[in-house]
Design brief:
- By secondary structure, the chain is an alpha+beta fold.
- It has a single domain (9-92), classed as Outer Surface Protein A, domain 3 (Alpha-Beta Complex).
- It contains three helices and six strands.
- It has helices at 40-48, 54-64, 69-85; strands at residues 11-14, 17-20, 26-29, 35-37, 50-53, 89-92.
- A three-stranded antiparallel sheet has the order 5-1-6.
- Strand 2 and strand 3 (26-29) form a beta hairpin.
- The longest helix is centred in the C-terminal third of the chain and has 17 residues, at 69-85.
Length: 93
């Protein structure tokens, strides 16, 4: 997945849309209409997935984060995997 060296150059593209639950909780909704409750940080990260490479996304998140480099990369990889699992992003060469 994203742990392979060449994966850093894959382009990450958003799929689906953002909405809100009845109580105002943010939702990421994939193209099949499946909605997933997320927090504001997840929505912000998803919004950054607009044709950016993983490496560039990592550098941007690292720039605004107070965590160390390895923690940021680990968290970002986990989040991207989750986004893939729920089909709200697509990776392209």
């Amino acid at each position: 997945m994203l742990l392979k060296k060449e994966s850093g150059n894959k382009i990450i593209l958003r799929r689906g849309e953002v909405g809100n639950d009845r109580d105002g909780t943010p939702l990421l909704i994939n193209v099949r209409g499946e909605a997933y409750r997320v927090n504001d940080t997840a929505v912000s990260l998803w919004n950054m997935c607009n044709g950016i490479t993983f490496d560039d996304l990592f550098l941007e998140v690292l720039r605004i984060s107070s965590d160390n480099e390895s923690e940021v990369k680990k968290s970002l990889e986990q989040m991207i995997r989750q986004f893939q699992k729920i089909s709200v992003i697509e990776l392209r060469d």
